[in-house]
Write a structure and sequence with these properties.
alpha+beta, three-stranded antiparallel sheet
């Protein structure tokens, strides 16, 4: 079922548009251009996932739901509020062609179902691609090689972050709820039957009732909690016939075991366990969202959640793709996820990135193929104010490196060059060059792409080179707008749903850019 609302604005719509145009121009743009944005080609792709159509109530046109999804992102509201706004906000009614309706044009369940179908079939990318086409069309950008700019932004997780005690307690509480539901019993009855002492209270730490100021309080609390866990497992073993094949319960228990494994270790005394010092790699920080992870905004600022990565077209300023990954994943892991989008059509002309993305082999491949890769060179200054790598010129034809004192040694790309200890021991510049122990000479790492790094270091010494680096500001501006519209906190649990959310917000930003291009075009026509 296609959505073909009228193109001409009614008298009431003209009045609404006149008032709305002053502050919320996007509503007017969506109303005036909805037939172009939600075209038949897009609607056909949306309709394909409803084949055969759902049974039950009167079907809602997927095109209308796609437009509602854009409005929901722009207003950053929940599903329930989105449905309410179709009744309470004339701007929504104007865009969705339901002015004066006596009931919402769709239910909350319909909107949720539509979102799930979009995620399952990748249609959020289709909607984003359509917004790119619209924006670049109004901006006058035809087929061309892509000038790509990449960057990322923290996205704080929606699920609760807890310490080790509460993670185990929360996990155990969740397992009890699953068991109660599957057995048709009350949780209180299961707690009593299993002999659990700490569960079922308003606060786990209140149930432990310890003086947390005492040195051994944490170890004591942990082992009391692990004893509770063993009582639960013992009861579960006695009920194993009841829970044969229960995937939900098995998953809940696996999560608890994962937390115990990553956060605790045998006590030095050999009795019980203690909290592990430091943080395990890939540590789980939430029961409800296993994909959330520790991440860093800087060396001193940590956050829990995800990183949202953006691919922006430098010239048109549209967002071509959004990828969400756990916060602890290296930035260069998203390069393969961006590569298809970057290479399609006429191909890739340039890539502007920060150092986090630079280590992927795909970047080196593009550079070898003639793509302009603009990125700051790796730091060449060692600690302590000693001579940096720039004081060690390399002759790539001869494959040699020369130290500040004139000593020349052969190099191998990807290896550390070791200057002879005998030469360094008698060198007058030793104190300025190395802090190596007696019997050791200065070592200098030569990267596999060292020749490229040298070229980048030379480039940033020039005004033109620094100017090229500053062109990345376009993605920083786009991210700033995205954060202002979407917020810093994730709306959903997990990477895929949050990628959907990022893509629909990106689509709205692209359409706002389209509205700007359209307005500029109209002004030029008036001036002419």
């Amino acid at each position: 079922m296609y959505w073909h609302p009228p193109q001409e604005l009614s008298r009431t719509e003209l009045l609404i548009a006149k008032r709305t145009r002053k502050r919320r121009k996007i509503f007017v743009f969506l109303r005036e251009h909805r037939h172009h944005i939600i075209n038949d080609e897009l609607q056909q792709k949306l309709l394909e996932v409803y084949n055969p159509p759902a049974k039950g109530s009167q079907p809602v046109a997927p095109g209308l739901l796609a437009m509602a999804t854009l409005l929901q992102a722009y207003c950053n509201v929940s599903d329930q509020e989105a449905v309410e706004l179709t009744m309470m906000d004339q701007r929504w009614q104007m865009v969705l062609d339901c002015l004066g309706c006596e009931k919402p044009p769709f239910s909350q369940g319909t909107l949720v179902n539509f979102r799930n179908r979009m995620i399952e079939h990748g249609l959020d990318k289709v909607l984003l691609d359509r917004s790119v086409e619209v924006a670049e069309g109004y901006g006058g950008f035809g087929p061309r090689q892509l000038k790509a700019v990449l960057d990322s932004s923290p996205l704080f997780g929606a699920a609760r972050v807890e310490d080790t005690f509460n993670l185990i307690g929360h996990g155990l509480s969740k397992a009890i709820k699953v068991a109660a539901k599957e057995m048709g019993l009350r949780e209180e009855d299961i707690l009593k039957e299993a002999g659990l002492l700490l569960m079922g209270h308003s606060s786990l730490k209140a149930a432990l009732d310890l003086d947390w100021g005492q040195p051994q309080a944490k170890a004591k609390a942990l082992n009391q909690l692990l004893e509770e866990l063993e009582r639960w497992k013992g009861w579960m073993e006695s009920q194993k016939d009841t829970f044969v094949g229960s995937e939900k319960l098995q998953k809940a228990l696996e999560v608890i075991d994962e937390i115990v494994e990553q956060d605790t270790e045998p006590a030095p005394s050999g009795e019980g366990r203690v909290i592990t010092k430091g943080t395990a790699k890939g540590r789980r920080v939430s029961i409800e969202d296993g994909e959330m992870a520790h991440g860093r905004k800087s060396k001193s600022k940590r956050f829990e959640g995800f990183k949202q990565h953006f691919l922006v077209a430098e010239d048109s300023k549209v967002i071509r793709e959004v990828v969400v990954k756990p916060a602890n994943k290296p930035e260069n892991e998203v390069i393969p996820l961006f590569s298809e989008e970057m290479e399609k059509g006429p191909g890739l002309e340039s890539v502007r990135i920060d150092l986090g993305y630079a280590g992927h082999e795909k970047i080196q491949q593009w550079e070898q193929e003639g793509v302009q890769v603009v990125v700051r060179p790796w730091s060449i200054q060692p600690k302590g104010g000693l001579f940096g790598k720039d004081k060690f010129p390399i002759d790539f034809e001869k494959e040699t490196m020369e130290c500040p004192a004139g000593k020349e040694v052969p190099i191998v790309l990807g290896k550390v060059v070791e200057f002879p200890a005998s030469s360094c021991a008698i060198c007058e510049l030793r104190k300025l060059c190395t802090s190596a122990k007696e019997g050791r000479g200065r070592g200098v790492r030569v990267r596999e792409d060292e020749e490229i790094q040298v070229a980048r270091r030379e480039a940033v010494k020039t005004t033109e080179g620094r100017g090229e680096l500053r062109k990345r500001v376009v993605v920083e501006h786009r991210i700033s707008h995205a954060v202002r519209q979407q917020g810093r906190k994730a709306r959903y649990v997990g990477t895929r749903k949050n990628q959907f959310d990022g893509r629909r917000h990106a689509a709205v930003l692209n359409l706002q850019m389209a509205a700007k291009y359209d307005e500029e075009s109209q002004e030029l026509k008036k001036a002419a």
